[in-house]
Amino acid sequence: MYDKWSVLRIETTINNPREFKIYRRVERCGKKVMRWVPMGKSVFNLYRYAEVSKSANERYLGALSAVVPLNDCVRELEQLAQPVQDGQNRYSGFNPLSPEATKLFEAVLDGSHSINGFRNKDLRTQLFGNTKSAEEMKKKVLPMNMKKVA
Which of 7, 42, 67, 128 sits 20 to 30 Å CA-CA off 105? Predict the structure, then answer.
């Protein structure tokens, strides 16, 4: 896909045409029969190249049309980051790009937990080191909405 003077162009290049089949008359056991055979590099197969390429382009554009535009995602992230008032309680917004949240995501998504999973203790050790008291952990910096969880 590329932009050519403000016109979006979708093109397909077939490097190995033998991966695709073409329905044509072939000779088998001395008889001419119609069969699906591997497509070769020939002008004779040009119509089939066009069919395969058009089909690939249509599937690509169909998949591309299902992609959520970025501005919608940005709007949703901004909404997520806004503080929330629930009666008397006020909760700060969640910023997934803050250094504290990034550190938490890195700890949760660490590959060392993929086989056996993880416990709260494992995450505490990874985030805060080997701190003993709860007061020491509270002094460590965490996002406002994460302090209630820890």
Answer: 67
Listed as ranges, residues in the chain with pLDDT below 50 are 144, 147-150
Confirm whether 78 is domain-assigned.
no
pLDDT of residue 149: 45
Domain total for the chain?
Answer: 2
Q: 19 is in which domain, residue-wise?
A: 2-65
Same-domain pairing of 61 and 10:
yes
Q: What is the pLDDT of residue 137?
A: 59
87 in a domain, yes or no?
Answer: no
Phi, psi of 71 (to 5 degrees): -65, -30
Taking the C-alpha atoms of residue 123 and residue 44, their distance in angstroms, rounded to an integer, is 63
pTM of the predicted structure, to 2 decimals? 0.42
Cα–Cα nearest to 98, from 111, 110, 81, 122 = 81
CA–CA separation, 3 and 9 (whole Å): 6
* Tokens at 56, concatenated: 């690939």
